[in-house]
Amino acid sequence: MILARPRTARSLRPSELLIPTPAGLWCPPADIYIDPVRPVDRALITHGHSDHARAGHGAVLATRETLAIMALRYGEGFTGERQEAVIGETVRIGAVDFTFVPAGHVLGSAQIVVESGGLRIVVSGDYKRERDPTCAGFEPVRCDIFITEATFGLPVFRHPPAHGEVAKLLESVRVFPERTHIVGAYSLGKAQRVMALIREAGYERPIHVHGAMEKLTDFYLSEGAVLGEIRKVVAAERKSLGGEIVICPPSAIQDLWARKFPDPVTSFASGWMRIRARARQKGVELPLIVSDHADWDDLQATIRETQAREIWVTHGEAEALVHWCGTVGLKAKPLHLVGYGDEGETESSGADASLEAADATAV
Ligand SMILES: [Zn+2]
Ligand SMILES: [Zn+2]
């Protein structure tokens, strides 16, 4: 480790505490990176999505759930060393204090509060403000600098309440009792949130899941998520699943795999479904606007709640959000961090491939 000179004698400038680099956000006085996109010696990870949590670091500090999710996705050897970050407890590295605070994004997701020499920067990671029965809710933290994503940082993105979207799904199931409803949802977080919302709406039949999301769903169940009876889809039995709900990775809704169900209704749960053209392009018959990211209004509300004097925007619609900050008198800048984005778009579908291979031989 690179030993830093003690810097507590004077206040740090923000640009001394966190620096955007090609590997990710670097904190020189602690010599750690937050959500690095390249292998580094020491990483602090906000949550388990594949664009933030990558394998191959020397050491990882993250919440217990995020560490478990990384182990499930990459295997136990995903990092050299691991250290558990307890929500609300401060860890000192060098002259810097780090505290993990719930981000409301997926199970185990956290903002990371970075504090040194009287300066406090909050790295929010991905976050949302809408209630999610499967993870702890976002907690705003007062800070000097708030670092935010802007995935849905345009006025067109105003997410309707998720339970209303799930009600549309259940209404369609009622109207088309012979058809299988196939819902594309990201394997980590979105899928389990949709299942939990389906249960909250009173639906009691088993929910069927694609093999690619079985491990993560089992993990959510073991962590106490109320998902009811979950059954893994057996390829040979797809024909018998008329009238049932099947949840699968977004990449699977257009696969041959999906076409073996009786007269399937194709659905997709995503904030992107707000854009009709995007739904049409993906062949989605029943778009459900369910997002695990803050919408335009919630980005603004969150920025105001933090009372930060300066906003840094990591990824997404950075220019639009930076512009809005200017209109309300806040200093703001885009960080142009590369490597982050919609994890679902790039999600590895290795499990899909093996399932398809099984299909091909099973006839
Ligand atoms: Zn994420
Ligand atoms: Zn992300």
Describe the structure.
The chain is α/β, with parallel strands linked by helices and 363 residues long. It is 27% helix and 24% strand. It has 11 helices and 19 strands. The chain has helices at 14-17, 64-74, 162-175, 190-200, 214-222, 256-259, 276-281, 296-306, 318-327, 343-346, 350-362, and strands at 19-21, 24-27, 32-34, 42-44, 57-62, 79-84, 90-93, 96-102, 110-116, 119-123, 145-150, 181-184, 207-209, 230-232, 245-248, 265-269, 286-288, 310-316, 331-334. The strands form 3 sheets. A 7-stranded mixed sheet has the order 7-8-9-10-11-18-19, with helices on one face. A 6-stranded mixed sheet has the order 1-2-3-4-5-6. A 6-stranded parallel sheet has the order 14-13-15-12-16-17, with helices on one face. α3 (162-175) crosses α4. The chain starts with 13 loop residues before the first helix and ends with a helix. Residues 1-7 and 344-363 have low confidence and may be disordered. One zinc ion is lined by residues 47, 49, 105, 126, 343.
